[in-house]
Structures are given as structure tokens and as C-alpha cells.
Request: fold
Amino acid sequence: MSALAALTRLGESFSNRSPTSPEIQQDAPKTEALLTSWPDEMRGIPNVTLRSALFGSSRSSSQAFLQRAEIFTQRPTRMRYTGPRLDQGDLDVWITLLHIARRKMLGRSFKTCAYELLKQQGKTDAGNNRKTLNKRLFRLAAATIEISATQHSYTGGLIDSIYRDEITHELVITLNHELYKMFGPNEFTHIDWSVRRSLNSKPLAQWLHGYLSSHAEPIPVSVDTLLLMAGCQNASASSREQNLLRALDSLQHASDLHGQPFSYEIRGGNVHIRKTPSSSQSRHLGRKGSGSKRNLDTVPLARQYRTVG
Reply:
């Protein structure tokens, strides 16, 4: 058979195949994913970002860039991260994007503007605030996370894409469709935005607020473990503990002002927290039953920022 005849027969065999035949599989369409909505006064945040050093309590250095670094997180979740080191200010911007996108389909672009993003954060539309916002947006766009958890895994960006519409001057932002996995039952937390805002410029107190909000019944955790999870980078152990005490006092004061009192005690090197769970957390506790409590020190944790080659 000549080469021309062979090519002709091969072309006919492809044209005669059904589009649904096993040889030619069509990619299955993605399921439409809408974030679970929440009230305006709350913010929905995935627990994995509240129980890890991904958004740390130390102020970020513009020069710090991590390459597949293993992030200190509460097990059984494991996380690696590539990108600029992130802080609580970056988290404010990201959860503001989630808040705006919560009634939109993930994976589809949506429009916003610097004015709206700053207003949602309680900031003025001033030049310095805009510059800081732009820096944080591009830091988030450069971030890639690899998460392995019990019920799901995720590898992707915190922001899929971002650009400016040259006609309307609006920001066009797309969030990864697969982020919906982080918003399953018991996978995310509603945090009180007014409490978090009142803790501006107190990143460790903000981190503690998110961490404690994500637990209906916080279990005792050692000072060292808590600070590692918070991404605290202070060299001195005594300085770290003093910072923790100040942050807990600030959080206690802010929570009291907003009618959400809690108490804490540091005993035997462990931090003991007593708080009133939210209504949804109370329902969760009812379903879960009493169960057995474990000290967090008995749960293995990943090392903080261990670079993987």
C-alpha cells in the first residue's frame, strides 16, 4: 500500500468514529460551583488558611520568596507553598475577594475596583492604600498552594488571573473553580468581620481570632506549637511569649466589646481557651457528640517553611 493510500485510510477511520467512542473521550464539563453564601457582617474563610502559617502573623518581607516550602499546619492537612511570603494584610485582601465573589460562579471572571476592595476593608481610597492594594493583589496572583487533606486536595493559585479593563478601568479577577473544595461542610468558618477589623495592625491577634473562630471547642495547645502555626518568626522565645500574651489580651478586649467574651489561661506551657461556640458550631458539636479530646501537642505537625528541593 502506498503512503498516500495509507494516509487516506487513516483519515477515513478517524472521520467514521463517533465523538463518544472510547478512542475519543470528550472532557467532562465542570460542575458549576457557587460559594456558600454568608451574611454581609461575616467573612467565609477556608479552615486550612486559618489553621496554618500560610498567612503568617509576621510582617512579610518583599524579598522573601518561598519555593515549594512546607507550611506549618494542623494535621492531617499538609501544605506546600510557592510564592512571596504572605501575611494577614494579604489575607484581608483575599477574603475580601471571596466575599465579593460569594454569589458568583467560581472559575468565571468578575469585575471590581480598587474603591470597592478598599471600602470592603474599611480603608480610604487614598493613593498609598491603592499602591499597597495593588502590591497585595499581585502577591496573591503569584501564590501557588499544594494542599493534601483527608477529604480533598488542591493545587492551584489563590487568584487565577487578574487584569485591568482598559475601557472601564475595572479589575477583572478570576478565582480557581476548584476552590469550592475548601468550602464543603465543616471546611470553612464564618468569622466576625467587625472583630477582625478592630484588630488592624495587630497581626498575631488577627491570626488568633481566625484560628479560634475555626474551632467550636479549642483544645489545649502549647505556646510553641501555637506560635509556629501562626508563622511567628521572632527569634527570642521570651519575646514570642510576650507577643502572644499581648495578642491574646487584645483579642479578649475586642471580643468583649463585640459581645463575644472568651477567657484564656496559660498553664504548664499550654494555652487553654474557653469560648462560647457559634450557633452553627453548637449544632456541629451536637452531631459530633462528646467524643474524646486530645491535646494538640499529640497531633503531629509539619515543619514550618522547610524548603523541598
User: Anything to note?
Assistant: The chain has one domain: 42-307.
